[in-house]
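Allow me, if you will, to draw on your knowledge of protein folds for a short while. Thank you for your consideration; the sequence and its tokens are set out here:
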Amino acid sequence: MCTQRLEKYNIIGEFKNIMELELDLIPFDLDLLTLEYPLGFKEMCTELDDSCLFQVSRSLMSLQSYFGFFPNIIGIGPSAAKVNTMIQRMRKEGAAYEKPLTPRIETLVLIDRRVDLVTPLSTQLTYEGLIDELFGIKNNEAKFPGKAFLSDEEKAQQDEVKPKGITLTSNDTIYNVARDLNFNALGPFLGKKAKQISAAYNEKNDAKSLQQLKQFVSKLPHMQAERKSLEIQTTIAGLVKSRINNSEFRHTLGIEQSLREGLEVDRVNEDIEEMIYKQEPLKKVLRLLCIQCIAADGLKPKILESYKREVIHSYGYHHLITFDRLEKCGLLYMQEKTPKKSYPILRSTLNLVVNNVNEREPNDIAYVHSGYAPLTVRLVSWMTQSLKGLKYVADMVKHLPGPAFQDSQKLSTTQDRLEHSDNHTLVYFLGGCTYAEVSALRFLAQHHPNNATFTIATTKIINGNSLLDTLIEPSSKDKT
């Protein structure tokens, strides 16, 4: 394609060599890597296309060429098993070129997104998660209404203001902490930070000697950067609050919570039905429908047909294709004659629903959804707390889709195994992960009994809307 464009503009002769730049994992932060493969989940589930998994395998081989081979590999789900097969084959093919590196990553955990579909469908309630839900984060940048960052005088002088792009990374010391907080804990944190910055500026008045003044001046650039960051984050927090501080948002959260807890999932939900009649955003409706389906281990035939009929009448017949894709992905499907009750068992055994969670000073990963713990992170927590790994959760994984396995890679004689004290785990999500899951893993690392550290890799950072975007069939009008 690049060659064709260069030929079209008659400039191909200006280039001596044209080579492909092979991109695999892109570092979005110190502990977060992404393949930026947005259609990976759709390809794996609806098209049975393993292109994404091949790219994942290549990225893992690239990591191993720098950090040594992973001594332990744990995988859950059909895509995880395929990736493990691919990297073992790739290693055999390149055995002659292996470098004798000491492994720096003790364990690789491969998680198929289909293992936990409730988490991405649920509304994220961390600061970063809400920014992604409401404004969208793309390549570590979110765009907000430009007027929100202007003074009253500037607003009066400008009629039209372009959206303002804000970079959101750990380079911003305030955002680095704020992003993983539950939104209800954000206000007190920003207030405390404002007092600290104000106190730091007041040190100038206490400076009595030249040495003390020099020390204050040396701190000034950092203080100014923090004050600017605080202003930006306070503005963004205000924008988020204006979007969620209404009865509609709270009502949707309440429906999500009741569905996850398994309340009245065996009947048509009147609230969802009313949303369909009002033609509220289809993604909002489908997120709730899919949560209900998974929580009930499938919908009864009459209930499923009722929902399909109402959605098609309200949003168009082209969504027959949407329903077909949702079924192939395990998001919306008919209940078996004898339900397995897999999700209710997992909800109870893994303690996914946590009542009275402390959002400001959390002691459980469930704070990221204000009472719901991501199943994926709960599994990682249990598997990494025991030397048994997958065997420790054997009774639970049999209720999850696809195979579960624990494998080990033999190291060459020149490769030394890490001591167990260096407990570094790479968690790779196949099909995407949410910012809430990233925050939960960071929280887990801070409170892990074995002092584990986690690096997170994913095919794409997703939320419920972006996941469904790849599956919803556009209307003929949208296509044109």
In short: Strands lie at 26-29, 32-34, 72-76, 107-112, 137-138, 141-144, 164-167, 404-408, 424-430, 453-458. DSSP finds 21 helices and ten strands in the chain.
